[in-house]
Structure formats: C-alpha cells, structure tokens
Design a protein that fits this description.
With 179 residues, the protein is α+β, with helices and mostly antiparallel strands. It has two domains: 125 residues, 2-Layer Sandwich (Alpha-Beta Plaits), CATH 3.30.70.1730; 51 residues. 58% of the residues lie in helices and 16% in strands. It is built from six helices and five strands; from the N terminus they run αβαβαβαββαα. Strands 2-3-1-4-5 form a five-stranded antiparallel beta sheet. Helix 1 packs across helix 3 and helix 4 packs across helix 5. The longest helix has 44 residues. The radius of gyration is 29 Å and the shape is elongated. 24% of the residues are buried.
Length: 179
C-alpha cells in the first residue's frame, strides 16, 4: 500500500495525464544537469512540462486511467512531457533536442489525443506544421466559399445596376422622364 505522499504523487500524475492533450514518455539516461535544465526551459517556453517520474508510480497512475499498455514505457530512467494545448511544439522541442544532443534522450512513446503512439508516432507529430499555420489553412478554407458567394452576389448586383442605368439612359434619349 503506497504511503500518503506516494498516493499524492500518483494522483498528481494521474490528473496531469487526464488533463493533457498529449504526453510523451522519454528516457533521459546519460543527460547532464545543464542540458536537462535547458531542455526543461525549452519545454516551459512552449507551455509544456518535463517531469521526472518513478516508474512504479507512473505505472500505477497509467493503470488508473485505463492505459495499462503504457506500462511498457515505464522502464529505466523515465520522464514525461505533458502538453496542454499545442501538442506539436513540444514534440518539435523533443525532436530538435534529440538531434542536437545526438540521441542522449530517447522517445519511448506516449499518448496523443487519447491514442497510444510509439516513438515513430511522436516523430510524425513533430513533423506537423505549426498550429497557427493549420488554423490559417482552416480559416482560408472557410473563407473561400464565402468570398466566392459575395463575388457572385456583387456580380448580380453590378449587372442589375448596369441594366437599370441602360434603361435610364434609353429613356432619357426618348425623352421619357418616368423611371
């Protein structure tokens, strides 16, 4: 039976797992304190959190949220990156750091939008375009039909004004002032 302090840690990890839009489990074996501090700062810059966890406590938390298959990731030195809103930016930070540090840390896997992913899945998330770019594409796609519809309506209105103007000029030539 876990102590009260361990129960609080388990509950904290569980709550973070449930509230996160994504989280990535990493192996940080061989990384020095200076690089670890830099990595944590990089995650803070993108509104994410890098937390070192005990495997047993993380496994208990994962089992309590019905993700028993996560147990395979909780072996060896383990840290979890919790993402709140943007799940692409933290994955890019992780991928960039792996490249920069020549593989000092390794991605074990994680959960993205409720789906369990392996290291290749996390790398695919890292290769997605930024959130702002995707939102701009959606806005552009939504705006395109509306602007086309406005163009059609303004064309009809322009033609109507042209016809009325032609009728008015024709009546002026004939001397009829009633329109």
């Amino acid at each position: 039976m876990p102590t009260a302090q361990k129960a609080n840690i388990i509950e904290n990890i569980k709550n973070r797992m449930e509230s996160a839009s994504a989280f990535y489990v990493v192996d940080f074996k061989g990384i020095d304190v200076q690089r670890l501090t830099k990595l944590r700062r990089n995650f803070r810059d993108v509104d994410s959190e890098f937390i070192v966890v005990k495997n047993t406590l993380a496994r208990i938390a994962a089992n309590s949220i019905d993700h028993k298959e996560l147990s395979q990731f909780f072996q060896g030195p383990t840290a979890i990156v919790f993402c709140q809103d943007d799940l692409v930016a933290p994955a890019k930070v992780l991928s960039d750091f792996i490249t920069e540090s020549r593989g000092l840390i390794k991605i074990k896997g994680g959960i993205v939008e409720g789906q369990i992913v392996d290291d290749a899945g996390v790398k695919q998330v890292a290769n997605l375009p930024p959130r702002e770019y995707l939102l701009a594409l959606v806005v552009g796609a939504l705006q395109s039909p509306v602007s086309g519809f406005v163009g059609v309506l303004s064309g009809v209105l322009r033609n109507l004004v042209g016809v009325l103007d032609a009728i008015a000029k024709d009546r002026e030539k004939k001397g009829d002032s009633a329109i």
